[in-house]
Write a structure and sequence with these properties.
- By secondary structure, the protein is an alpha+beta fold.
- It is built from 14 helices and 45 strands.
- It has a six-stranded mixed sheet, sandwiched between helices. Strands 3, 4, 5, 6 and 7 form a five-stranded antiparallel sheet that branches.
- Helix 3 packs antiparallel against helix 4, helix 8 runs antiparallel to helix 14 and helix 9 packs antiparallel against helix 13.
Length: 770
């Protein structure tokens, strides 16, 4: 026992690689050096160029001061200074002559500063291990990024007592999220959920139970991640997948879903990287990693290649009374493997035995077979790779085409019950004529009742082509407490706040359709049909619906910050940079509807009231009740006037064919309102020339008096070049001739700065119907 403990201590000493001094002296950053947040992308590189320190543009006009991998296509961020307070364009990170290291906005206001203690800073350096350090003239480290991690650990880095990692809010939003990984001062290593957006913790969802023994988390250069005691003893491994730092880039990250994952990237770009669950990584013809789904699986989110894959079939039943072995077969994938999640290994198995072992096991999703044996994998499959160096083959178990699930449904059970009753009744028919009549009558009543019940159930089945949840009216009545709390109302509907108690108190918004039955029927089917086909982060998610006679309701995700209309026309004006983010988000949502849906959708009613904001002020397009779907062979349609006056394109009034350009026009009006924080039509102004914003905006652009449009908005005035660009984009969008308006894809590119904005022509005339 003592010998084993001694061996563990020796092993820990050998693989611990502490950093006490700076190993490199070249490429030092001298006092007075600085980097400005702009599109020039100036950086401070490590000597090998493998890591970069500088600004990453997260959204147009907003930057993150960060460190990232510089030699791989993903440019993955591993540390950031201002994750909760993005820096605007023109902000500066500077190493001052007196040793201060600060990030200040263009007005000199401090956004972030290194917490310095000890001797005076003489220089800075970006090290090849991904650590940014401030050092004294004796090369002593005064401050280092490794001591203040965000959500990521790198090889050579330790997480000491009192240190923690905080997950990002989402894959693209780097602000602090909902999960915490903490090396507590009592020695316990704990995963917490956070009381988002507050900083306090709610509960621990897992821990190492190492109170009074745990000391630090170590990520060594050999790729091991473990919890060590003060004397170096390894208490537990968090990742025991060895990978040499000389051959692979590595990082361990607490991701936005609360899972700590260890990622490995080949330095030579001759192997696969890491993808989401149930997917696999391979190199494309351009030598860049691709994430793909195996046969029988499809992407969770087609807009996010890292989202992983989901099953396209019903998994194998583990019910002992149901034998589904014959309903499954295998698809072969040569040179494929999912290295993690082996739960059973068979040595000296031939391929037929390997197949049989997986078929007979309801937990087995994939079997890996090669000349050394058979490895069984279960869901979720992790770190899939496809590479010629792997050898062997993956046997992916899928349900055979046209195979059905065994008869366990309620209707089949009802038929079984009816058969049993018939058999029982037949056995009793010989007793007497009267008894026979009673039994026969009872049997007929029972069958009629079940048929009626079956017909009622069928009337509430899912709509054709729709795979969302069907609620009963009673369920939604209870969820909304009798439709008590109203969130808003429109011409044909009212929206109520609700709670789904059996889903951990999930908040929902229930839209109850009313008015005329015929109109409600059309609106209901249009909205369910259109939204159920969509899946995008900038569209409000439809969770379900209710269709019971005249009771037609739609269930949406709850958007806690209400509508964009209240946000920009309220008492306090939102920041210019948040408005820029919102404009780009709305454009992305419209691009998806116009160009990325399987069926092209024209929203027909884009306006601030139909853009909602979630808890992070992410903008999402809502209200598809007026949406118009186009068949794949259509580019235009004809229909009656739809939409809201003031946002309706001129062609609606001229019996012209309707295309996606009507949404472009509406977006242009919305964009004007968003950047100017005023309504398109405003009658309480002193100068009547300012009543219609679209008129006035072009006049101001033409005579170069843009500051009149921004009034006292200091942020917009400071960023007047971007304000002018957005104004020009809006003027292009509201051109009277639809052919002159750009498509939303080009609008988005202009907003993001990847395409230059040409000088817009005079719109000549605007619709005056308000």
């Amino acid at each position: 026992m003592a010998f084993a403990i001694l061996c563990r201590i020796i092993f820990a000493i050998l693989i611990l690689l502490p950093i006490s001094t700076i190993a490199q002296t070249n490429l030092n950053i001298t006092l007075g050096s600085s980097i400005v947040a702009n599109r020039s992308n100036s950086t401070w590189l490590s000597p090998s160029g493998e890591f970069a320190f500088g600004f990453q543009q997260i959204v147009p006009g907003s930057y993150l001061l960060a460190i990232w991998f510089n030699n791989i296509p993903q440019r993955t961020i591993v540390w950031s200074a201002n994750r909760n307070n993005l820096a605007e364009e023109g902000s500066i990170i500077q190493l001052f002559q007196d040793g201060r290291f600060e990030l200040n906005d263009p007005r000199g206001q401090r956004i972030w500063a290194a917490n310095l203690a000890g001797p005076r800073v003489a220089y800075a350096a970006m090290l090849d291990i991904g650590n940014f350090v401030l050092a004294s003239n004796t090369s002593r480290v005064v401050w280092q990024s490794f001591d203040e991690p965000t959500d990521t650990l790198l090889p050579g880095q330790t997480l000491n007592q009192g240190g923690d990692l905080v997950a990002s809010f989402s894959e693209t939003n780097y602000s602090s999220g909902r999960f915490l990984f903490a090396m507590q001062t009592d020695g316990n290593l704990v995963f917490y959920t956070r009381n988002f957006p507050m900083n306090d913790n709610i509960f621990a969802y897992t821990s190492t139970q190492t109170v009074d023994s745990g000391y630090q988390v170590v990520f060594n250069q050999s790729g091991y991640i473990f919890l060590a005691a003060r004397n170096g003893t390894i208490l537990s491994f968090l990742s025991s997948e060895s990978a040499s730092s000389s051959q692979f880039y590595q990082r361990a990250i607490l991701e936005y879903d609360g899972v700590l994952r260890h990622y490995v990237y080949p330095r030579s770009n001759n192997g696969p990287g890491a993808c989401g669950f149930n997917s696999f990584c391979s190199l494309g013809t351009d030598q860049r990693p691709n994430c793909e789904c195996p046969n029988g699986y499809s992407p969770v989110d087609r807009n996010d290649r890292m989202s992983g894959c989901k099953l396209d079939y019903v998994p194998q039943s583990c019910d002992r009374e149901i034998n589904e072995t014959g309903l499954f077969s295998f698809i072969e994938m040569p040179n494929a493997d999912w290295p993690d999640f082996d739960y059973d290994i068979f040595e000296q198995y031939d391929e037929d035995s390997c197949r049989r072992a997986c078929l007979d096991d309801c937990f087995c999703a994939v079997a890996i077979y090669n000349d050394r044996g058979c490895w069984k994998k279960k869901f979720p499959l992790s770190n899939g790779r496809l590479d010629s160096s792997i050898g062997g083959k993956a046997l992916i178990k899928i349900r055979t085409r046209n195979a059905t699930v065994n008869p366990t449904s309620e209707s089949q059970q009802n038929r079984k019950d009816q058969s049993t009753l018939i058999i029982t009744g037949s056995a009793l028919l010989g007793s007497s004529v009267f008894l026979n009549l009673v039994l026969l009558s009872s049997l007929l009543i029972f069958i009629c009742y079940n048929r009626r019940k079956s017909s009622i159930i069928q009337s509430y089945t899912v709509l054709p082509g729709v795979n969302i949840r069907s609620f009963t009216f009673i369920e939604l009545q209870e969820a909304t407490n009798g439709f008590k709390e109203e969130l808003g109302n429109g011409a044909c509907s009212t929206v109520y706040k609700g709670v789904i108690n059996n889903e951990n108190g999930k908040l929902i918004a229930v839209k109850k359709l009313g008015k005329m039955v015929e109109e409600a029927e059309v609106e209901f089917k249009a909205e369910v049909s259109s939204i159920s086909r969509t899946n995008h982060k900038n569209l409000v998610q439809l969770l379900g619906y209710c269709d019971e006679g005249q009771n037609k309701l739609l269930v949406y995700e709850f958007m806690s910050n209400g509508s964009l209309s209240s946000f920009i026309f309220g008492n306090s004006r939102p920041s210019w940079y948040k408005r820029v983010q919102i404009a780009c988000a709305i454009a992305r949502g419209l691009c998806y509807l116009h160009d990325e849906c399987s069926t092209q959708i024209i929203h027909c009613d884009i306006k601030p009231q139909n853009v909602l904001l979630d808890e992070t002020l992410t903008a999402k397009i809502s209200d598809f009740g007026l949406a118009k779907l186009l068949r794949p062979d259509q580019t235009r349609t004809t229909t009656g006037i739809r939409g809201t006056r003031g946002y309706v394109a001129p062609e609606w009034f001229r019996n012209m064919p309707i295309t996606v350009k009507v949404d472009v026009y509406s977006f242009g009006i919305l964009l004007l309102e968003l950047i100017c924080c005023r309504r398109n039509v405003q009658t309480d102004v002193e100068n009547e020339n300012e009543e219609i914003l679209s008129y006035w905006a072009y006049d101001c652009y033409k005579i170069r008096t843009l500051k009149l449009l921004v009034a006292d908005d200091e942020e917009a005035i400071y960023d007047i070049k971007q304000f002018e660009k957005f104004l020009m984009i809006a003027l292009w969008c509201i051109q009277e001739d639809p052919s002159l308006r750009p498509k939303m894809k080009r609008v988005l590119h202009m907003l993001e700065g990847s395409v230059e904005v040409p000088i817009p022509p005079n719109p000549e005339s605007f619709t005056t119907i308000c």
